[in-house]
Amino acid sequence: MRVVVQRVLEASVVVSNTAVASISKGLLVLLGITHTDTQEDIDWLVKKISQLRIFEDASGQMNASLQDVQGELILVSQFTLLAATKKGNRPSYVKAAKPEVAEPLYEAFALVMEQALGKKIGRGVFGADMKVSLINDGPVTIVIDSQQKE
Protein backbone atom coordinates (compact mmCIF):
# COMPACT_ATOMS: atom_id res chain seq x y z
CA MET A 1 0.00 0.00 0.00
CA ARG A 2 1.11 3.48 -0.75
CA VAL A 3 -0.41 6.56 0.86
CA VAL A 4 -0.10 10.28 0.44
CA VAL A 5 -0.87 11.97 3.76
CA GLN A 6 -1.71 15.67 3.61
CA ARG A 7 -2.18 17.84 6.68
CA VAL A 8 -5.19 20.03 5.91
CA LEU A 9 -7.11 22.94 7.33
CA GLU A 10 -10.12 21.60 5.43
CA ALA A 11 -10.88 19.00 2.79
CA SER A 12 -13.90 17.64 0.96
CA VAL A 13 -14.90 15.02 -1.58
CA VAL A 14 -17.69 15.54 -4.12
CA VAL A 15 -19.21 12.81 -6.31
CA SER A 16 -21.83 13.66 -8.95
CA ASN A 17 -22.22 17.19 -7.54
CA THR A 18 -22.91 15.80 -4.05
CA ALA A 19 -20.56 16.26 -1.08
CA VAL A 20 -19.83 12.82 0.36
CA ALA A 21 -17.20 13.86 2.93
CA SER A 22 -16.00 17.08 4.50
CA ILE A 23 -13.59 17.83 7.35
CA SER A 24 -11.87 20.73 9.01
CA LYS A 25 -8.42 20.36 10.63
CA GLY A 26 -6.99 16.91 10.04
CA LEU A 27 -5.62 14.62 7.36
CA LEU A 28 -6.54 13.80 3.80
CA VAL A 29 -5.20 10.31 3.04
CA LEU A 30 -4.98 9.07 -0.54
CA LEU A 31 -4.64 5.26 -0.60
CA GLY A 32 -3.20 3.12 -3.40
CA ILE A 33 -3.54 -0.66 -3.07
CA THR A 34 -1.44 -3.32 -4.80
CA HIS A 35 -2.40 -6.93 -5.48
CA THR A 36 0.04 -8.16 -2.79
CA ASP A 37 -1.30 -6.02 0.09
CA THR A 38 -2.69 -7.71 3.19
CA GLN A 39 -4.16 -6.96 6.61
CA GLU A 40 -0.59 -6.56 7.85
CA ASP A 41 -0.13 -3.57 5.52
CA ILE A 42 -3.37 -2.06 6.77
CA ASP A 43 -2.42 -2.47 10.43
CA TRP A 44 1.08 -1.03 9.93
CA LEU A 45 -0.14 1.99 7.95
CA VAL A 46 -3.06 2.80 10.24
CA LYS A 47 -0.75 2.78 13.25
CA LYS A 48 1.81 4.92 11.43
CA ILE A 49 -0.73 7.47 10.16
CA SER A 50 -2.73 7.77 13.38
CA GLN A 51 0.44 8.34 15.42
CA LEU A 52 2.36 10.45 12.88
CA ARG A 53 3.53 13.57 14.71
CA ILE A 54 2.97 16.25 12.06
CA PHE A 55 0.75 18.72 13.92
CA GLU A 56 2.09 21.59 15.98
CA ASP A 57 2.12 21.30 19.76
CA ALA A 58 1.77 24.21 22.21
CA SER A 59 5.36 25.31 21.50
CA GLY A 60 4.86 25.34 17.72
CA GLN A 61 6.87 22.17 17.07
CA MET A 62 5.56 19.28 14.96
CA ASN A 63 5.18 16.93 17.94
CA ALA A 64 1.44 16.21 17.94
CA SER A 65 -0.44 13.42 16.18
CA LEU A 66 -3.91 13.44 14.64
CA GLN A 67 -5.16 11.82 17.84
CA ASP A 68 -3.47 14.48 20.00
CA VAL A 69 -5.18 17.35 18.17
CA GLN A 70 -8.47 15.43 17.85
CA GLY A 71 -8.34 16.00 14.10
CA GLU A 72 -10.53 14.50 11.43
CA LEU A 73 -9.61 12.29 8.47
CA ILE A 74 -10.84 11.63 4.95
CA LEU A 75 -9.74 8.44 3.17
CA VAL A 76 -9.80 8.38 -0.65
CA SER A 77 -8.89 5.37 -2.81
CA GLN A 78 -6.49 6.30 -5.59
CA PHE A 79 -5.09 3.55 -7.82
CA THR A 80 -2.96 6.08 -9.72
CA LEU A 81 -0.54 6.19 -6.76
CA LEU A 82 0.79 2.89 -8.10
CA ALA A 83 1.61 4.32 -11.53
CA ALA A 84 4.79 3.07 -13.17
CA THR A 85 6.34 5.77 -15.34
CA LYS A 86 9.72 4.27 -16.22
CA LYS A 87 8.90 3.56 -19.87
CA GLY A 88 7.30 6.03 -22.23
CA ASN A 89 4.88 8.79 -21.32
CA ARG A 90 1.76 6.77 -20.58
CA PRO A 91 1.68 5.49 -16.98
CA SER A 92 1.13 1.80 -16.41
CA TYR A 93 -1.15 0.71 -13.58
CA VAL A 94 -0.31 -3.01 -13.55
CA LYS A 95 0.85 -2.74 -9.91
CA ALA A 96 -2.58 -1.51 -8.80
CA ALA A 97 -4.93 -4.16 -7.41
CA LYS A 98 -8.06 -5.02 -9.36
CA PRO A 99 -11.26 -3.55 -7.84
CA GLU A 100 -12.43 -6.92 -6.49
CA VAL A 101 -9.21 -7.09 -4.42
CA ALA A 102 -8.78 -3.40 -3.66
CA GLU A 103 -12.28 -2.48 -2.51
CA PRO A 104 -12.45 -4.93 0.44
CA LEU A 105 -8.97 -3.78 1.53
CA TYR A 106 -10.05 -0.14 1.27
CA GLU A 107 -13.12 -0.83 3.40
CA ALA A 108 -11.02 -2.77 5.93
CA PHE A 109 -8.51 0.09 6.08
CA ALA A 110 -11.32 2.56 6.83
CA LEU A 111 -12.72 0.38 9.62
CA VAL A 112 -9.32 -0.16 11.25
CA MET A 113 -8.63 3.59 11.06
CA GLU A 114 -11.97 4.34 12.71
CA GLN A 115 -11.12 1.91 15.50
CA ALA A 116 -7.68 3.49 15.96
CA LEU A 117 -9.10 7.02 16.10
CA GLY A 118 -12.22 6.10 18.06
CA LYS A 119 -14.50 7.93 15.64
CA LYS A 120 -15.94 7.87 12.13
CA ILE A 121 -13.83 9.06 9.24
CA GLY A 122 -14.86 10.63 5.97
CA ARG A 123 -14.58 8.49 2.87
CA GLY A 124 -14.51 8.92 -0.83
CA VAL A 125 -16.56 6.57 -3.01
CA PHE A 126 -14.49 3.63 -4.25
CA GLY A 127 -14.12 3.65 -8.03
CA ALA A 128 -16.06 6.89 -8.49
CA ASP A 129 -14.98 10.00 -10.35
CA MET A 130 -14.30 12.22 -7.34
CA LYS A 131 -13.53 15.89 -7.00
CA VAL A 132 -11.21 16.31 -4.02
CA SER A 133 -10.62 19.77 -2.59
CA LEU A 134 -8.23 20.72 0.17
CA ILE A 135 -6.34 23.48 1.83
CA ASN A 136 -2.96 21.94 2.59
CA ASP A 137 -1.67 23.19 5.94
CA GLY A 138 2.04 23.98 5.90
CA PRO A 139 2.15 22.51 3.32
CA VAL A 140 2.78 19.14 4.92
CA THR A 141 2.60 16.19 2.50
CA ILE A 142 4.15 12.79 3.26
CA VAL A 143 4.34 9.65 1.13
CA ILE A 144 4.47 6.30 2.95
CA ASP A 145 4.85 2.87 1.36
CA SER A 146 4.04 -0.20 3.49
CA GLN A 147 6.24 -2.42 1.32
CA GLN A 148 9.30 -0.31 2.05
CA LYS A 149 8.29 0.51 5.64
CA GLU A 150 9.35 4.12 5.16
Q: Can you tell me the CATH architecture?
A: 3-Layer(bba) Sandwich
Number of helices: 2
CATH superfamily: D-tyrosyl-tRNA(Tyr) deacylase
How much is the radius of gyration in Å?
Answer: 15 Å
**What name does CATH use for the topology?**
D-tyrosyl-trna(Tyr) Deacylase, Chain: A
Question: Can you count the beta strands?
Answer: 8
Average pLDDT score: 96
Strand content of the residues, in percent?
35-45%
Q: What is the distance, rounded to the nearest whole angstrom, between the alpha carbons of the first and last residues? A: 11 Å
As for the number of domains, it is 1
CATH uppermost class: Alpha Beta
Roughly what percent helix?
10-25%
Descriptive notes:
By secondary structure, the chain is of the alpha/beta class. It has two helices and eight strands. The protein has helices spanning 39-51, 99-117; strands spanning 2-15, 18-23, 26-32, 55-56, 62-64, 72-77, 122-123, 130-145. Strands 1, 2, 3, 6, 7 and 8 form a six-stranded mixed beta sheet that branches. It has a two-stranded antiparallel ribbon with strand order 4-5. 33% of the residues are buried.
